[in-house]
Design brief:
The strands form five sheets. Strands 1, 2, 6, 7, 8, 9 and 21 form a seven-stranded mixed beta sheet that branches. The chain contains 20 helices and 23 strands. Helix 2 (54-63) packs parallel to helix 11 (441-451), helix 6 packs antiparallel against helix 8 and helix 11 (441-451) runs antiparallel to helix 12. It has four domains: 4-153 and 187-200 and 342-451, FAD/NAD(P)-binding domain (3-Layer(bba) Sandwich), CATH 3.50.50; 202-339, Elongation Factor Tu (Ef-tu), domain 3 (Beta Barrel); 457-550, Arc Repressor Mutant, subunit A (Orthogonal Bundle); 565-619, Orthogonal Bundle (DNA polymerase, domain 1), CATH 1.10.150.570. By secondary structure, it is of the alpha+beta class.
């Protein structure tokens, strides 16, 4: 091990591995420090990658040279595209992974990476001189010098696990809490808060009665996360669905006082969008059942993850309640559900590059910034890793805008919104979601992958050729004429009313009741289907079908970018601006927005405040 590095990454979770991987890939001399090497990229909660809005982040990570999409594809045991009955803006791929193979795959990639070292240790303090990071202190190896450091501490900072009234200092069941670093960061002037999350029980598959449960398997047409892959690599397993009932709810309701959540034992704020089963029973008393997904943890085990049954109930009450559910009457608990409470650092303390405002060279990524979820953490880790290398090179940071990527929405929201609960990405948070689809990350981000050399030359050529193919398809579709007889055969096969004239593929795809799969199945695309991939055909279909909506959104993006282009100097003192409310001054001085557009997204900043800012900027000759 060296005693001096370009980048030190503290934490081997999903943020940490992306940060270490990409900074080493960009040529940095990198050290990854993790408390337990065997738990690198561990799926601490659900054994899945992607899902609603999260798949967009995974696709972006893949396009910018990250590992998550590759790992999910190589270890996936079920591939399911969600929301196909809705528009493409909310389509989302979700991959169940073999969680052990996922961790092993990522660790293997990191261990083989040139100029990347891994050690089992714990960062306990930072050495700061004149506001600049110089070194980190660790529990075992002592002082290690570095140009930059990325803190990716997950749920481990002063973490406490709650199971009923029992409290266990632990960052993950069976692993120690990181007690020192949080205090040291406070000593260095950072503000902290407390958040709470939780995880459901894991039960033995042999104890589940699967007969009569809903079965959900993989898609017929699988398009993996990574553009590098064309297939699945492992045996595919189904998930199952069951439901709680009135007996379940009655038992939980009678024991609410025994939970860590309702007894007042937990002080941190939990996520509203992913409540515990006791919270659901209490808040939604009119509901007689809640859906539970039984998800396989992998091919190596018969454990199942009971998605939807997160809890801080005592273990015996958990068992009694779950055994009232159909199929789980004899459920054997391998691991109990628990809640976990931990320190985080409100994200107004970081810049858009994820570098902290008061310590040069120090970056935060993942749950330390108040987020929840593997994908949100990984996206931050990737951006922090890229920007740590750019800082060392003396280059401008890489900042994704809201109209370019969900990763841009994520980071902008963290900084401008008043985060009081774990932040999770939703498609509803993206104003331009029709442009930010999970299937077009290449058209949005390829230019950056090329600019920062995040992909190989061969990969970039492949992606450029694919985009060229997609661009050619509308004209090709227009040239493929369909006779009325053939068209009506297609319509009859799909229960669509008859037509009195022929058409072409382009115009046919404009119809809301037709799709590319119909045409592939009918033989209408036999002339070209071997020349283009299924991905390319689907992309072209989306661009044709939603052409009008996309054009309107492009106009909206143009308006959005006007205010984004009006930059705000970072040394402005807003108390000197005439006409600003006290609350606005406080928030603007705390967050230091980088543009007028970002200032307008800060909670509590009104359109009137933006007008005052513009007037003051003009008066001072700053615009």
């Amino acid at each position: 091990m060296h005693r001096s590095y370009d980048v030190i990454v503290a934490g081997g979770g999903h943020a940490g591995v992306e940060a270490a991987w990409i900074s080493a890939k960009m040529g940095g001399n990198v050290l990854l420090i993790t408390q337990t090497v065997d738990q690198i990229a561990q799926m601490s909660c659900n054994p899945a990658i992607g899902g609603l809005a999260k798949s967009h982040l995974v696709k972006e990570i893949d396009m910018l040279g990250g590992l998550m999409g590759i790992a999910a594809d190589r270890t996936g045991i079920q591939f399911k595209t969600l929301n196909l009955s809705k528009g493409p803006a909310v389509w989302a791929l979700r991959v169940q992974s073999d969680k052990r193979k996922y961790s092993e795959f990522v660790r293997s990639r990191l261990e083989k990476k040139k100029n990347l070292n891994i050690i089992q240790d714990e960062v306990t303090d930072l050495i700061i001189e004149n506001g600049e990071l110089k070194a980190v202190k660790t529990a075992i190896n002592g002082l290690i010098h570095t140009k930059t450091a990325i803190i990716c501490s997950g749920t481990f900072l002063k973490a406490v696990i709650h199971i009923g009234k029992k409290q266990i200092p632990s960052g993950r069941l069976g692993e120690p809490s990181a007690e020192s670093l949080s205090k040291k960061l406070r000593d260095h002037g950072f503000e902290t808060g407390r958040l709470k999350t939780g995880t459901p029980p894991r039960i033995a598959g042999y104890s589940i009665d699967f007969s009569g449960l809903e079965i959900h398997g993989s898609d017929e047409h699988i398009i993996p996360f990574s553009f590098r892959h064309k297939k699945t690599y492992l045996k595919q397993l189904p998930c199952y669905i069951t439901y709680t009932n009135e007996k379940t709810h009655s038992l939980i309701d009678a024991n609410l006082d025994k939970t860590a959540l309702f007894s007042g034992q937990i002080k941190g704020t939990g996520p509203r969008y992913c409540p515990s089963i006791e919270d659901k029973v209490n808040r939604f008393r009119d509901k007689i059942s809640h859906r539970l997904f039984l998800e396989p943890e992998g091919l190596y085990t018969n454990e199942y993850y009971v998605n939807g049954f997160s809890s801080s109930l005592p273990v015996e009450i958990q068992k009694k309640a779950l055994r009232t559910v159909r199929g789980l009457e004899n459920a054997h608990f391998v691991r109990p559900a628990y809640a976990i409470e931990y320190d985080y650092f409100p994200a107004y303390q970081i810049k858009m590059s994820l570098e902290t405002r008061n310590i040069s060279g120090l970056f935060f990524a993942g749950q330390i910034n108040g987020t929840s979820g593997y994908e949100e953490a990984a996206a931050q880790g990737l951006m922090a890793g890229i920007n740590s290398i750019l800082k060392i090179r003396g280059e401008e940071p890489f900042i994704l805008k809201r109209n370019e990527a969900y990763a841009g929405v994520l980071i902008d929201d963290l900084i401008t919104k008043d985060i009081r609960e774990p932040y999770r990405m939703f498609t509803s948070l993206a104003e331009y979601r029709l442009e930010l689809r999970h299937d077009n990350a290449d058209s949005r981000l390829l230019k950056y992958a090329e600019q920062y050399r995040l992909l190989t030359g061969k990969e970039i050529k492949y992606l450029k050729d694919r985009l060229d193919n997609i661009a050619k398809l509308p004209e090709i579709f227009s040239s493929l004429k369909i006779k009325m007889k053939n068209l009506n055969e297609l319509y009859e096969a799909n229960s669509i009313g008859p037509s009195s004239e022929g058409t072409d593929i382009y115009r046919l795809l404009k119809r809301p009741d037709t799709n590319i799969n119909m045409m592939l199945n009918s033989g209408l695309l036999d002339k070209i289907k071997d020349k283009f991939s299924y991905y390319e055909l689907k992309q072209a279909e989306t661009l044709i079908k939603y052409e009008g909506y996309i054009k309107r959104q492009t106009v909206m993006i143009g308006r959005f970018e006007k205010n984004e282009k009006i930059k705000l100097p970072q040394d402005i003192d807003y108390s000197k601006f005439k006409g600003l409310k006290k609350e606005a001054v406080e928030k603007l001085n705390r967050i230091k927005p980088v543009s007028v557009g970002q200032a307008g997204r800060i909670a509590g900043i009104s359109p009137a405040d933006i007008s005052v800012i513009l007037i003051n900027l003009k008066t001072k000759g700053l615009i």
